[in-house]
Design brief:
This protein is an alpha+beta fold and 280 residues long. 57% of the residues lie in helices and 15% in strands. The chain contains ten helices and eight strands. The strands form three sheets. It has a four-stranded antiparallel sheet with strand order 5-4-7-6, with helices on both faces. A two-stranded antiparallel ribbon has the order 1-2. A two-stranded antiparallel ribbon has the order 3-8. Strand 6 and strand 7 form a beta hairpin. Helix 1 packs across helix 2 and helix 2 packs across helix 10. The radius of gyration is 32 Å and the shape is elongated. The model has no long low-confidence stretch (mean pLDDT 90).
């Protein structure tokens, strides 16, 4: 997207030169420096030589994309352009609207042209099985305390009641506001996402058991294991839609890069000005 937008800025420069020479005499002086002058004609010729060929190529590609979209009944609405401008935090000016409209048009075209078959989906799944693994997860509760002494006292209170009072003790003594009102409930978490010290503790706990206090970043934590969910490989049928969507997104991204040049190669292009043929 950034490359296309840089080239669009070149169009603006060429257009500016044309305006300058179209509105005034080509010999009109537009700059002076220590006795030397630059005319509108010189500016136009310089821009034409530097950017004329590449800008023409981009303009032809743009028109071919617009024609292909028209054939397929694809349109980009003004509201979509405005929404994209806000998303990209761009000023709502004519040049930015044109850039965004073309980017959205290319995105829609690529999505309309890309197809993913069941066979492709299964092949992608087999080649990327690790993407569709469910890691080992645990359902935990925790009590966080500010000192080892307090943590040991709470652990002793838990031991006397076999952990049945865990949630009540959390509500009264835990210093973690994120879980205190939920009785320490942390929800279901992948083990790999826990602090390394807590990972080691959790792997040794049995369901229903609670840990000894563990120091983590200057605080003391007691964990209770409510449930354990072992690692599993998701079957293709379960993740079929996800696989198809991921594969399609990859193909859309690739087609967006290739489509402008692909349409250009398929078209019968005639460059009538010999000074513009260097990039063709």
């Amino acid at each position: 997207m950034e490359v296309r937008w840089k080239l669009m800025r070149c169009w603006l420069l060429v257009g500016l030169a044309l305006v300058l020479t179209g509105c005034r005499s080509s010999e009109h002086i537009i700059a002076r420096a220590d006795g030397i002058t630059v005319t509108a004609k010189e500016l136009q010729e310089s821009l034409w030589q530097r950017y004329g060929s590449s800008t023409l190529r981009e303009l032809v590609q743009q028109k071919l994309l617009e024609r292909e979209a028209q054939k397929r009944g694809i349109v980009v609405t003004d509201s979509e352009v405005i929404q994209a401008l806000k998303q990209y935090r761009l000023t709502d000016i004519r040049e930015n609207r044109r850039k965004v409209r073309m980017e959205l048009l290319l995105e829609k075209l690529a999505n309309a042209m890309v197809e993913v078959t069941e066979t492709e989906g299964r092949r992608y799944y087999e080649q990327n099985k690790t993407l569709f693994q469910q890691p080992e997860r645990v359902h935990l509760r925790e009590i966080t305390l500010e000192s080892k002494e307090n943590a040991e006292a709470i652990w002793e209170a838990l031991r006397l009641r076999n952990g049945e009072n865990f949630a009540d003790l959390v509500r009264h003594f835990s210093i973690n506001p994120a879980t205190r009102q939920r009785g320490g409930d942390m929800g279901v978490i992948p083990v790999r996402d826990l602090h390394p010290k807590l990972q080691a503790v959790v792997r040794k706990l049995k369901v229903g058991a609670f840990s000894r206090p563990v120091e983590v970043n200057g605080e003391w934590v007691i964990l209770k294991l409510e449930a354990r969910f072992p690692e599993e490989q998701k079957k293709f049928e379960r993740v079929r839609e996800q696989v198809i969507a991921q594969l399609k997104q990859q193909k859309v991204w690739q087609l967006k890069l290739e489509l402008p040049n692909k349409l250009l190669r398929q078209a019968k292009v005639q460059i009538l000005d010999p000074t513009l043929k260097k990039d063709w």
